[in-house]
Amino acid sequence: MRLNSTLVHGSKNWDQHTGAISFPIYQSATFCHPGLNQSTGYAYSRDQNPTREEVEKTLAILEKGSRGLAFSSGVAALATLYQIFSPGDHFIVSDDLYGGTFRLFEQLTKNGLEFTYLDIGRIELIEPAIRKNTRGIFLETPSNPMMKVADIKAVAQLAQANKVLTIVDNTFLTPYFQRPLELGADIVLHSGTKYLGGHNDTLAGFLVVKDEELGERLKYQQMSVGAVLSPFDSWLILRGLKTLGLRLERQQQNAIVIAHWLQTNDNVEAVYYVGLPDHPNHDISQKQATGFGAMISFKVKQQAMVERILGNVRLISFAESLGGVESLITYPLVQTHSSIPKKMLERLGIDERLLRLSVGIEDVEDLILDLDKAMC
Questions:
Q1: Rounded CA separation 247/195 (Å)
Q2: Active-site position among 46, 57, 217, 219
Q3: Which of 125, 173, 224, 298 is geometrically suited to a Cys-Cys bond with 177, CB 3.0 to 4.6 A?
């Protein structure tokens, strides 16, 4: 099946036991065995549950991976991934990334893991940073919130040459617009809370891997750590996936119009959106992705304008998170990136004048009118 058909029908198309078109919520913690040493294939929902299995297999198909694993949040997925590593292992990480990811990595330093942060978009910086104990390169692309784009294929080739893993956070573009495993990455991470769910009503996280042996190791850690996605939340993600393509196309369409409008607004100093032809990584994005997504960051000229916008928007909600059908505006400095050290923020340009906009599916003229009124 092609991508849009897989989104609608999932891995099984319908429930093979009942014929249900909407895959059932198997809300059971445990499963009965027919007899000694006999099994239906399910024993305990921390190990596996039919509803979670369906969403995991669907994500694996969408990302062209061998195995998908579903977790209770994106951070839970990331924390479980790092259980396969050992004290002394070293990682090269995008310097521009979600604050929660940075916070987790800082916590993992207490367990002996080491992290080097650099601009992975500059490929020439990576190889000198690789050590004998380097085990992986972790990147967000586009990055959060400055919308930097890294060349996934080039990074993966460099990683393979040095026998280290390439881990890509694909939350912003999803497999609808970008499939890192096809570009050479080893592991894909998602906060399913965002575009995959798409309705701001559930928390979820996913890992998808290319190598089956690595998938088995992560499956063991998933069961051991136990931060698995519940049956109901698995169903919510399955429901969200059905409209992923439709939503992303509309959100991207809106985002392009809004980004161009922001560029002409006298209150705005800079607009960071990969879909703009003057974005420094626009060509790389076109090479490795089929779309630009719907995330925009922009910097206003006066700090006072930030409070005015956040207090005056009505259609757009001032809230954390992203990727839902409703448009959200976020203040990274005090919300999503408050855990990141000041010097690092200053180097990246994340300051008191930066706002991040997750564009929804509303009428674009209403969204522009809301922003325009908020700035007055």
A1: 9
A2: 46
A3: 173
